[in-house]
C-alpha cells in the first residue's frame, strides 16, 4: 500500500492521517456528497433517529470534523422541543414563562433547552471549516468545538449522555495491532479510543458508531469493490486534486474490522447490550452499546 501500514511508526501514521484531512478539509463536504451520491446524509439521519435524543441530552461527537452530526443533533432536539411545547399548549398544561415565550417566538421554539453538543476533532482545518459552516448556518447555542484526540479525550469521566463517532473510528485504527488483536493481543489505538468513549460517558450513556463496514452480498460486494478502487480515487483527483487521500480512504475501509469483530471490541471496552445495524447490506454499519 502507499502508506506501507505494516512498517510505518505510530507517529508517522498519525501524521499521515492528519495530512489527509488537512488537505481534504475544504473539499470534504463536496467529496462526501459526490462519493456517496448524497447517501451519507441518509446514513447520518438514521444515526440521529437511532439516538433519538431528548431535550437535555449532552452529546460528544468525536472525530466530528465539519459538524454534520452536531447540526443534525441541534435540529433534532429543536424539533422535539417544538413538538413538546405544541402538545403542552394544546392541552393547556402548566407552562413556565420561558416556555410560553419560546413557543411564541416565530411560532416555534428555536431553543435547544439545556442540550449541548461538543464536537471534538484532532484536525484544526476540519474544525475551522466546521466553525465557519456553523456561523453561516446560524448554529451557535449549545455548540462547542474542541481540538482533541479520540485516543486521549480532553474530558472528565462520566460527563456525556451520548458519544457518537461517524466515519472517524477507522482513523484511530492501528492496522498492525488490529491484526494482532485477532490473535488475541488487546493493545490497539482502536481499543484505546473505545475505552476513552466508555470513560467519558455517564453510567447509562450510549455509544454510537457509524462507519463503513463489510458487505455481505457477493454481487454487491464486487460492484462495491469496483466502485471503490476504480471510481473513488478518480473522483478524489478530479474534485479535490487528491488521489492519494481517497486511495487511503478506500484502503482503510478494507482493513477495518468486520461487524462482529468490532462488536467484540466494543464489548471488551466494557459496553453492554452491544449491537449493530447494517445499512445498505453492510456498506455502513451502526454499532451501539451502553455504559451501565
Ligand atoms: N464525523 C464527520 C462526518 O461524518 O462527516 C467527519 C468524518 S471524517 C471522515 C474523519 C475525521 O476524523 C476527520 O475530521 C479527522 O480529522 C478525524 N480524526 C482522525 N483521527 C482522529 C483522532 N485520533 N481523534 C479525533 N479525530 C480524529
UniProtKB/TrEMBL annotation:
Residues at which S-adenosyl-L-methionine binds: 66, 121, 149-150
EC code(s) of this entry: 2.1.1.201
InterPro entries in alphabetical order: SAM-dependent_MTases_sf (IPR029063), UbiE/COQ5_MeTrFase (IPR004033), UbiE/COQ5_MeTrFase_CS (IPR023576)
Annotated GO MF terms: 2-methoxy-6-polyprenyl-1,4-benzoquinol methyltransferase activity
Record-linked SUPFAM superfamilies: S-adenosyl-L-methionine-dependent methyltransferases
Cellular compartment(s): Mitochondrion inner membrane
Pathway assignment: Cofactor biosynthesis; ubiquinone biosynthesis
Membrane topology: Peripheral membrane protein
Record-linked Pfam families: Ubie_methyltran
Known catalytic reactions: a 2-methoxy-6-(all-trans-polyprenyl)benzene-1,4-diol + S-adenosyl-L-methionine = a 5-methoxy-2-methyl-3-(all-trans-polyprenyl)benzene-1,4-diol + S-adenosyl-L-homocysteine + H(+)
Keyword terms, alphabetized: Membrane, Methyltransferase, Mitochondrion, Mitochondrion inner membrane, S-adenosyl-L-methionine, Transferase, Ubiquinone biosynthesis
Record-level GO cellular component terms: extrinsic component of mitochondrial inner membrane
Function comment: Methyltransferase required for the conversion of 2-decaprenyl-6-methoxy-1,4-benzoquinol (DDMQH2) to 2-decaprenyl-3-methyl-6-methoxy-1,4-benzoquinol (DMQH2).
Protein family according to the UniProt entry: Belongs to the class I-like SAM-binding methyltransferase superfamily. MenG/UbiE family.
Subunit structure: Component of a multi-subunit COQ enzyme complex, composed of at least COQ3, COQ4, COQ5, COQ6, COQ7 and COQ9. Interacts with PYURF; the interaction is direct, stabilizes COQ5 protein and associates PYURF with COQ enzyme complex.
NCBIfam families xrefs: MenG_MenH_UbiE
Protein's name in the database: 2-methoxy-6-polyprenyl-1,4-benzoquinol methylase, mitochondrial
Amino acid at each position: 500500500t502507499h502508506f506501507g501500514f505494516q512498517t510505518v511508526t505510530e507517529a508517522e501514521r498519525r501524521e499521515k492521517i492528519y495530512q489527509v484531512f488537512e488537505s481534504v478539509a475544504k473539499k470534504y463536504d463536496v467529496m462526501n456528497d459526490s462519493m456517496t451520491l448524497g447517501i451519507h446524509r441518509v446514513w447520518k439521519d438514521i444515526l440521529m433517529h437511532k439516538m433519538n435524543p431528548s431535550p437535555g441530552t449532552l452529546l460528544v461527537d468525536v472525530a466530528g470534523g465539519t459538524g454534520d452530526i452536531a447540526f443534525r443533533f441541534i435540529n433534532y432536539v429543536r424539533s422535539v422541543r417544538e413538538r413538546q411545547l405544541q402538545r403542552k399548549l394544546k392541552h393547556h398544561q402548566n407552562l413556565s414563562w420561558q416556555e410560553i415565550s419560546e413557543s411564541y417566538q416565530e411560532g416555534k421554539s428555536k431553543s435547544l433547552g439545556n442540550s449541548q453538543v461538543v464536537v471534538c476533532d484532532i484536525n484544526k482545518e476540519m474544525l475551522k471549516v466546521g466553525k465557519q459552516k456553523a456561523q453561516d448556518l446560524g448554529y451557535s447555542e449549545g455548540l462547542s468545538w474542541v481540538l482533541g484526540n479520540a485516543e486521549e479525550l480532553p474530558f472528565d469521566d462520566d460527563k456525556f449522555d451520548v458519544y457518537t463517532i461517524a466515519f472517524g473510528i477507522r482513523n484511530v485504527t492501528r492496522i498492525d495491532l488490529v491484526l494482532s488483536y485477532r490473535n488475541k493481543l488487546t493493545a490497539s489505538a482502536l481499543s484505546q479510543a473505545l475505552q476513552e468513549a466508555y470513560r467519558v460517558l455517564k453510567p447509562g450513556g450510549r455509544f454510537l458508531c457509524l462507519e463503513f463496514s463489510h458487505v455481505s452480498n457477493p454481487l454487491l460486494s464486487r460492484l462495491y469493490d469496483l466502485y471503490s478502487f476504480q471510481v473513488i480515487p478518480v473522483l478524489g483527483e478530479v474534485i479535490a486534486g487528491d488521489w492519494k487521500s481517497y486511495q487511503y480512504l478506500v484502503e482503510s475501509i478494507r482493513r477495518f474490522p468486520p461487524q462482529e469483530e468490532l462488536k467484540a471490541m466494543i464489548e471488551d471496552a466494557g459496553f453492554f447490550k452491544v449491537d449493530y445495524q447494517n445499512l445498505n447490506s453492510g456498506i455502513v454499519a451502526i454499532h451501539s452499546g451502553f455504559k451501565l
